[in-house]
Amino acid sequence: MQVLKNLGTIYSSNTAVTAAYTSVVVLGTDTTSNLQDCAMFDQLILYVGFIIGSLTDILVKVESSADQVRWYAVSMLNTTTGAVSILPFKLAATGDYRIPVAIKDKYIRVSLLGEGTATSSQVRVDACLGRSVTDNQL
Question: What average pLDDT does the segment 29-37 reach?
């Protein structure tokens, strides 16, 4: 069973970002809600709606930090090769994407970079935090 916290839309733009990574949001800094510590969760799920337009692709980078000073790129194990890969996720076609990311740090930063010209390109990022629990933890 999983406990989920829906964060809703964390970024939406009719012009996808280009030229440099644009920090979309830093999760774990909201002192007005109970989302002050992403380490209470073990997974981040990004839902990305992307219209490619004239872009070549868009890169979605996820980083984690314990202190918001030193940021570390999130890595994943490639189950085909057994190698560890450093993100970003590269989206090269119009579509809706679900990107699950394992997390363990207090702060999570999501950034985007569109490669190419952003004419008619659109991007929307929704997010959800989750954690796995057993029945006796409910």
Answer: 53
